[in-house]
Amino acid sequence: MTGACAALKLASELPETHRVVLIEANDFAYWPPGALRACVLPGFEDSVFAALDKVFPPGSRHLVLAGTRVVSLNPNSVVVDQVREPFASTTIEFEYAVIATGSTYGAPCRPSGKTAAESLSSLREQQRQIKEARSLLVAGGGPVGIEFAGEVKAVHKDKKITLVGRGARLVGPQFSGKFHRRLLAGLEAIGVEVVLNDGVQLDGVRTGPVEGGARKFTTSSGKSIDADFVFVAAGGRPDASLISAADPAAVDADGRGKVDPRSLRFLSPKLRSYFGIGDAVDSPGLKTFLSGKAQAAAAAGNILTLVKAGSPDAHLNKAFKDPGMMMVVPLGPSGGASQLGSSFSAL
């Protein structure tokens, strides 16, 4: 999503001497913010998919290579997994590039299939599984776990749901106590049991129906939870494998690509032609779509500066401005809470 934002910004302002090539491993666009509703509410699943052939208008000089995977990075070219017209080989040269590979996460937050049809089928299957479940365990007290619990309760009010979070506050300690208390009250009001300052041993269980039927899960404090469906709302990791393969020193201890916090240009001399945005890099602030969109605008603006100056050494005056503590967490279609900086509001 953030990569497309950067591509559209560049396409609208690049001189006619240049074009944008948008490379996407999937043959479709996927909307993760809507996926938690799509895996629960029948009929909503179609809303999270879009065709990539309409990113640029018909007849545009800009290109989308859908269903194409980048396999390696070079100083001024990338290698892809197949030859795609109008290119004569798997090597695609460029002046500047934006890396927006995001993070790895389990379905439904990321598509589960190689095609839109496969992923659509998976969402419908998960809808069926959730409908048949009687007791759900949500492992993770962040936005994903909270939102999933709210979506399930909005459609299936009779489901027993227990949400377990390791921290003392929902979402995270960096957010206000009011934000936490509003979300906690909202979850409890719809019948979700919330267990905080605790963890749960999943023993390799992944999101989905519990194999063999309902079983007991034990938390770190010894609490016993019965569940026949588990939703793992934790464990996402930055997808920076291409970056580390190109230069192991370009990745920090958390597995994120190291970029200049102002310009978002990679700090590695080997990746000087690259800018990084989103979950895969160590840009300042929260890893949210709002922040990623602001990063896309900053990175694209700096590339435009370099292109128009005709020099890779031109001063980069487009600084990324962290949107700050901005978070919206829905509890179904008619509830939730938001924090915008120091301001809090209920939805």
Question: How would you briefly describe this protein structure?
Answer:
The protein has 347 residues and is α/β, with parallel strands linked by helices.
Can you walk me through this structure?
The chain has helices at residues 2-13, 32-38, 116-132, 143-155, 177-189, 241-246, 289-309, and strands at 21-24, 29-30, 49-50, 63-66, 70-74, 77-80, 91-93, 97-99, 103-104, 135-139, 160-164, 192-195, 208-209, 215-218, 224-227, 229-232, 237-238, 274-276, 326-330, 336-340, 343-346. A hairpin with a 5-residue loop joins β19 (326-330) and β20 (336-340). It is 26% helix and 22% strand. The chain is of the alpha/beta class and 347 residues long. It folds into two domains: 2-25 and 67-105 and 236-316, 3-Layer(bba) Sandwich (FAD/NAD(P)-binding domain); 131-235, FAD/NAD(P)-binding domain, CATH 3.50.50.60. α1 packs parallel to α7.
Q: Which CATH class of the largest domain? A: Alpha Beta
Strand percentage lies at: 15-25%
What's the quaternary structure here? Answer: single chain
The CATH architecture of the largest domain can be named as 3-Layer(bba) Sandwich
Number of strands: 21
Helix content: 25-40%
User: What are the low-pLDDT stretches, counting only 5+ consecutive residues below 50?
Assistant: none
InterPro entries: FAD/NAD-bd_sf, FAD/NAD-binding_dom
GO molecular function: electron-transferring-flavoprotein dehydrogenase activity; flavin adenine dinucleotide binding
Keywords: FAD, Flavoprotein, Oxidoreductase
Family: Belongs to the FAD-dependent oxidoreductase family.
